[in-house]
Amino acid sequence: MTQKATSRAPLTADEPFSPAVTEASAAPEAETRRGRSRLRPAGRDRRLSVDIGTSLVAKGVGLAAPLVITPTCFRYLGDQRYGLWMTVTALTGMAWFADLGLGNGLLTRLSLLSDDPRQRAREISSAYATLGVVTLALLAGLALVEPLVPWARVFGVTDPAIAGEASTLALLCFGAFAVNIPLSLIQRIQYARAQVTQTNAWQAAGSLTSMVAVLGAIAAGSGPLTVIACAVLTIPATNLVNTLVYFWRQESTARPRPHLVHRATAVGLLRLGLQFFALSAMSSIALNMDNPLVAHVLGLTVAAYYAVVGKLFAVLSLFVGLVGMTIWPANGVALARGDTAWVRRITRRMMLLNGVIVGTAGLTIVVGGHRLLDLWVGGVDPAVVPVAVLGALALWAVLVATASPLLMVQNSIGLLRPQFVGWAAFLLLATGLKIAGLREFGLVGLPVAGCLAYLLTLWPAAVVGYRRALATSPSAAPRSAADVTV
pTM to 2 decimals? Predict the structure, then answer.
């Protein structure tokens, strides 16, 4: 059976990306028996459980590797050189927006596409071409700016020897970051193709390789810049090897090629990517305004205590994010095939899983938080951060965790307007409520106000958007084969 494709209007924020699912795409002749089993609910459930487990393991390795090398690097590099390296690294972390949200856009579109290698290759080729241009622009800008910036003075380097290395170190770190922008697309591609365990294995291997390379360079007495290069170049190198292996040995039919770069596809990817970028920027502002508000109303000392406590609960957000990234493409595939029953069931399960795990961990922090803080940072005054603050932060974590699966269903088809409305309303309402709560009730007023604002804004947006996403499925609203955009 052949698929007839016709033109389709550009994707907008209130129109989800929705390719057609034809009989051929739903059950392609080339599909293996193993592939068919993954489409069945039981197979998908098992795959999802394995993917979540490997994601946690990979993230654990990724967090442990820096902890292992930090003491050795600090002693070997010295405080100023190590501080310079960490400062430049922090600046690259602030440039998370450099991919323009295109990685998330590609993840969404690939997870919804039928099993046509040429369609996938066109999306992938256009994504690599777009981010390749971004990378070249960043590298060109870095080359132009580098001679003009007094790096040693900017970063406050006083040691003359280290000052002479500041420019090279900045070029090394910023250059590695820029090169990794297109190289990291392979992770989104593998997520979209339900190869989460595979990409997790590569990420864990990259972290371990970086650790071994750094420790080996130190043991060999290599120069400081060589040690830093081993740390910052290993991840891009791992992504490059993963990309080559994937496209030249596993998915050669989807390999990116210059002649498959498609202007309309690139524009569609960029449009959806910019929507994800704008949504991420808005939510990032909304979620990171607490410390400035505490500092403004209650002073820097209280803000410092609150920031330390917040780091405990940040671990819970990490778990929620890992689970969300895993179910994102799985939801897209199921909705494209019209399997809303599976989406409903897995969403309920993920809400329960998130609620139980985050709730239990949050309760543990509430009960033993001050004792843990004593061991970690030497203690936080209970009068400044009482148990009520910990309890309110735990409630906030549960609200965010249980809403996340609803939002991931919307992300899986690019339905972002309800989230835009929700986050905009939250930003406005929460700012006012938090300031009032801080002035009236002290520090506990801030997380309580955040919980109230989230219940009044983001939760309704999550529920409304979730229902709209289910309504776009072919099982709820028949769609023609003309809905495929490539």
Answer: 0.77
